[in-house]
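Quick question, first post here. What does this chain look like in 3D?
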Amino acid sequence: MHPFSTLPGELISLLRGLGEAADQINGRAYLIGAYPRSIITKKDCSDIEIIVTGAVERFTDHFIDNYHIIDKKNIHVEGRYSFVNSPYSKGDYIRIARARKTEKEDSGNVITEAFSRGVSIDSLCINLSGKYFGHIYDPAGAFEDIENKVLRLLHRNIFEVEPVFIFRAVYYAAKYGLSWEPITETVWRNAIKRGLHKNVPEKEIKIILKAIKKEKYGKSALKLLKEAKVLKPRGLWPWKIR
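> Answer (accepted):
Ran it through. Tokens below.
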């Protein structure tokens, strides 16, 4: 079954337009992360993230030229991402970024981008370009891990580089009912012993903890955090969620 077979026609048209815009600059556009994962897990998701192998500034211009209903005034840039308001879903947005590159490359590389994600299930890509439109690209083994419900780190220093993944990993496990790969859990617990979780801003932790609490497996996830002494026994460390 085609991965886009259950999507509304207007959204498929939008995704095809993104791919065509990338083709015009001799690049490639890929849907990555949450949305491809949602197609496999059949969970609703409005988070559309696009990575482009090429000059993302030119890509954004080409995309807007193809979709005149998008007002340039509504585009804003934050970090490596350009945010475009979704023309089909009010209140949602499309994130566009150049794929990460290696030290030897000038243009973004989809393989480098996939392996730069914190956990494998966040690395699944779907090609949006030309004759490959809708083809699943999975260099990091995301599909197998999603099917087997396994949480697996892609690189062991992720908690040092992005400490927020100490909490985000637990959120993924709670949301999708994932079991921990043994090495992943060991690295996670070692990161906590080193106190890396204390480097995460309070605001970010609050948001993730509230999200965890809403999930089907949220209670067991919070229990894990308490047992790891990330949360205090009498409430969510150092805040309470009401």
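The longest strand covers residues 93-98.
The chain has ten helices and nine strands.
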